[in-house]
Specification:
Keywords: Signal. With about 350 residues, the chain is mainly beta. Helices cover about 5% and strands about 45% of the residues. The longest helix is centred in the N-terminal third of the chain and has 21 residues. The chain binds 2-acetamido-2-deoxy-beta-D-glucopyranose (3 copies). One 2-acetamido-2-deoxy-beta-D-glucopyranose binds next to strand 17 and strand 20.
Length: about 350
Amino acid sequence: MNKTNLLVVVVLFLILLQLLTVVIDASTCPPGTYYQEILHRPSCHECFYAEYCPGDGNNYPCPRGTVTPEEGMVACVKCPTIRTNSDQTVCLLADTPKDAREPDINDDENEIYTLDRKTPHWYTTIPVYGLPVGKPMELEYAFVPEQSKYDVPLTMFASLTTGQPNKNNFTWSFEGNNATIIIPYTRPDENTNFFIIYFNVAPTTVQQNSVKFIGRTFKGFQAKFSFVPNTKNSKVIDNIVNEENQVVLEWNNVPSVGRFNVSITLKDLSHEDDSYKSYSVCYSKQPSITYPNSFNSNLVVADNVNKQINIILQNAVGGVVRIGVVFGQLNIVQIDSELRILSNK
Ligand SMILES: *[C@@H]1O[C@H](CO)[C@@H](O)[C@H](O)[C@H]1NC(C)=O
Ligand SMILES: *[C@@H]1O[C@H](CO)[C@@H](O)[C@H](O)[C@H]1NC(C)=O
Ligand SMILES: *[C@@H]1O[C@H](CO)[C@@H](O)[C@H](O)[C@H]1NC(C)=O
């Protein structure tokens, strides 16, 4: 290419660039998007949940009683019951009690709520956007008692199909401390982003009127291994983009010996800047805890991604050993783990 041709190409490119910047304005944003300038660069953005973008360049909040369960919607959907969750992403079931309460489980503040016998009804929205479609997995929802109230037993009934689950029509139930239910879940399609779970939960004993708790969901994948001494297991998990990601490493047929050495390394295969990314490794001595996490475990160790975490389990009971690995902000992750016997005492 000679110099004149090069000059022509450069000039054409500059003209094109100029055209592109001029072309985007409020009137050109298609329905489902809205116009916004970020750092003086005009662009069209996808309409967010609980908003609608009719195509006039603006985004508007959904009116009361309507929802948008997807992004990029041109209109809000009216709920038959005129009742919605507070995020306006899911309609409430018709039989949801008027006094049902909604804890903000996605709030990182660890807000403390009071469970009492007079108003036992709750519902909570579980976000599933970003989870892989068609892959069976398990979600865990836990009512974790406030530190000082661990000894208050709870009775819980939960359902997806009735706003008033009770002892006759529940899908999941729980009685005891650390109230936790496991919800088998397969995300059916890309457009399913949320669902609501309804609870009836209160202190079991009449003497105890109320108990403080923190509500939490964990989205878990189970990685099951049969115990073979001194064998490294490696697992790649992809496309999980939720804040509260969790993989449970489960070893079966572990002999009952005194001490184990568990070593775990997390590699960020998305190769983004991971200097600030951390993960934690959790172990609970209670076999009933299937998703050990930072709220229900006896041992929690955290470090940065790409650094190995080693924990020593003392007096571990054999059989099934579960280690929860909790991490966030990572798309593709490789987990290397090894469970080794240290002694037979
Ligand atoms: C469950 O029981 C409650 C209270 O009796 C009732 O209001 C609700 O409709 C029932 N739900 C189902 C699905 O049977
Ligand atoms: C546990 O295993 C790790 C990794 O193999 C090793 O670096 C560490 O020294 C071991 N700890 C003990 C107490 O054996
Ligand atoms: C869970 O419940 C048991 C009693 O059943 C209690 O000893 C333990 O401290 C509780 N706490 C956590 C964090 O799981």
